[in-house]
Amino acid sequence: MSEILQQLAQVLEQRKLEPTEKSYVAGLYAKGLDTILKKIGEEAAETIIAGKGGDKQQIIYETADLWFHCMVLLASQDLSPDDVLAELQRRFGLSGIEEKSKRKS
Ligand SMILES: N=c1c2ncn([C@@H]3O[C@H](COP(=O)(O)OP(=O)(O)OP(=O)(O)O)[C@@H](O)[C@H]3O)c2ncn1[C@@H]1O[C@H](COP(=O)(O)O)[C@@H](O)[C@H]1O
């Protein structure tokens, strides 16, 4: 896993064990799943808007917000980015069209 994903995942786990008042992540955990999911919805919408706008820096910024909040969701469900990376690895080389036809048969 990329080093920053690993480091961030460790901090997200740490915030579950030792929540601090000044932690944004601990605040999200405390507010609960619906708040985390709402943030993902907002960040996804902002990523769409950035994509339409075509400003590369804005696309990077909003995608980072989206990935970050998805990582908070994973951590809240005791999942790790490794779980998602393993799924991408499993799919690697399998065409989306082929995969869909297997699901339907
Ligand atoms: N990568 C991030 C990160 N990306 C985005 N954000 C926060 O996510 C929020 C994004 O919300 P918005 O863009 O909607 O901005 P906003 O309107 O200010 O937010 P809200 O009031 O709606 O929540 C902002 O408060 C950002 O600061 C992040 N907060 C934390 N991290 C990482 O998580 C670590 C732990 O953070 P704390 O738990 O706060 O110490 C940090 O060291 C960072 O590595």
UniProtKB/TrEMBL annotation:
GO cellular component, one term: cytoplasm
GO biological process: L-histidine biosynthetic process
Record-level Gene Ontology MF annotations: ATP binding; phosphoribosyl-ATP diphosphatase activity
UniProt-listed Pfam families: PRA-PH
Catalysed conversion reaction: 1-(5-phospho-beta-D-ribosyl)-ATP + H2O = 1-(5-phospho-beta-D-ribosyl)-5'-AMP + diphosphate + H(+)
Entry EC number(s): 3.6.1.31
Keywords: Amino-acid biosynthesis, ATP-binding, Cytoplasm, Histidine biosynthesis, Hydrolase, Nucleotide-binding
SUPFAM superfamilies: all-alpha NTP pyrophosphatases
Keyword match ATP-binding: yes
Protein's pathway: Amino-acid biosynthesis; L-histidine biosynthesis; L-histidine from 5-phospho-alpha-D-ribose 1-diphosphate: step 2/9
Family: Belongs to the PRA-PH family.
Descriptive protein name: Phosphoribosyl-ATP pyrophosphatase
